[in-house]
């Protein structure tokens, strides 16, 4: 089954994102049209303040859009009940956890909450999914450690495992590579690529790692001047969409090597 | 698997400790009654002396039950507030419940000098303190719930609770300023807290509120666990943040409000027990923490009450002083010894 004919997981139609204050609204970006299919890895890029986080919050249903539609598994996101939505979308955020006193296993197991009973008891099937998620991101050796004992790179993997355990068709990550060294940045993004291939989940993440994203992603969404450009990396490069992403006096995009270079 | 088995053993031990401390609590006092006699009296068998049986069933058992209910109820409210407000300093009274209660009681006890003597004579009956303190707590509780429905930010509720506390404290000090010494003393005695003055009737009423509060707390366990990740994650896991917040506030109000009404504003237990328990059972999972805190609160309160009645003597000390005198050094010792703060 080729990617182009597989099911659409997330779709936006003429979506406008931003903030409402009383009767006025502050538009962050407008006219966003994208569709994300099973097994695709999508990067959202843009300068600081371009609206990456706002977009991700709108796509995950935390924040309402200003206009247009977000469809998740063909359902309008605004009409979907949070309990139902939790079976469609899982998140990895930059928000600090309240308690890092949970063990890795306990934290990953919290991903099963949408499926557990009133008191959160894990069934055999839940445990199986938790162990599978732990295996997929290769953290079996640290599964009994407390989260505060982990390095940033390990902890990011744990959060990704938690999202996997939630067993949703879409995973949204907000800047999963911040605070990581170059190796771990590449590692995490490569892991996301692998996971999208193996699990057929759609994965969308915001990142400043444009050079890495260009090499690993199936498609990219560039937020610039309140507009969104969506397409495959090579198409975006060909159409010069990356050239004026940053102010031009310091760095510029080099088409030969598909990366940004210092002038 | 999830360390659950190891923790269930700890929970069973804690439960046994509740029973043992309860037996000692009933056995010790101005009159010493052997533990074996206490056990047979409680199981309905004959006891050596009839007076012992009378003392146990009419004085010491209701007091022990009150200690269990207040200790566990306040400890659970403390845990709920600490998780809800993501703040290790939160306790059952951060919502201003005890301030509301003390305002109600202060108006009853000291209002006479301000509003006239006729006012006081109408209100001073056996139940007046309980009713006044409940009304005070209810007033503050409704104000906080009203605010919590309108507010999006959970932290703002914490500040509002604190504001209500200083507001009521200010009114109480104005009342105290104009009150004669005898009434002031009555108020001070109330604020010391007391477990021993409850009739069986009152114990039943308190127990019903306690049960309701505990059941709501147990029903919130799953949502509280999701809150450990933060509100955004909790929402993405399907938790209804506002409904959960409402449930937690109701549970705390039922528990802390009814306890304050019947036993006075008992300090420290609610704040300290969750920390004590986290040092013994290093888990953040509420499935383990809620029962552990219930047992831990009961144990601490029973021990404190046993000490407060100064076994073998005619005197007893205010329970509020003992909870802090015993509890504070234990918390400090545990934190220093482990050098690590579990939250």
UniProtKB/TrEMBL annotation, chain A:
Q: What CDD domains does the annotation carry?
A: ABC_Iron-Siderophores_B12_Hemin (cd03214)
**Transmembrane regions:** none
Question: Its membrane topology, per UniProt?
Answer: Peripheral membrane protein
This protein's UniProt keywords: ATP-binding, Cell membrane, Ion transport, Iron, Iron transport, Membrane, Nucleotide-binding, Transport
Location within or outside the cell: Cell membrane
A Pfam family (short name) is ABC_tran
Task: Output the Gene Ontology cellular-component terms.
Answer: plasma membrane
> Which terms under GO biological process does the entry name?
iron ion transport
Cited SMART domains: AAA
A GO molecular-function term, please?
Answer: ATP hydrolysis activity
- Tell me the leader sequence span: none
Instruction: Tell me which InterPro entries the record gives.
Output: AAA+_ATPase, ABC_transporter-like_ATP-bd, P-loop_NTPase, Siderophore_ABC-ATPase
Domain ABC transporter span(s) in chain numbering? 10-250
Gene3D superfamilies xrefs: P-loop containing nucleotide triphosphate hydrolases
Family matches, as PANTHER family: IRON(3+)-HYDROXAMATE IMPORT ATP-BINDING PROTEIN FHUC, PETROBACTIN IMPORT ATP-BINDING PROTEIN YCLP
Full protein name: ABC transporter ATP-binding protein
Q: Which organism is it from?
A: Christiangramia oceanisediminis
Automatic annotation (TrEMBL), chain B:
Q: Does the keyword Transmembrane helix apply?
A: yes
InterPro entries from the UniProt entry = ABC_BtuC-like (IPR037294), ABC_transptr_permease_BtuC (IPR000522)
Its subcellular locations are: Cell membrane
Q: What are the protein's GO molecular function terms?
A: transmembrane transporter activity
Q: Which GO terms describe its cellular component?
A: plasma membrane
Q: What is its main location?
A: membrane
**Residue ranges of the TM segments:** 64-81, 93-123, 129-149, 156-178, 203-225, 246-273, 285-303, 315-336
Keyword annotations from UniProtKB, A to Z: Cell membrane, Membrane, Transmembrane, Transmembrane helix, Transport
A GO BP term here is:
siderophore-iron import into cell
Membrane topology of the entry: Multi-pass membrane protein
Q: Which family does it belong to?
A: Belongs to the binding-protein-dependent transport system permease family. FecCD subfamily.
Name it.
Iron ABC transporter permease
Provenance organism: Christiangramia oceanisediminis
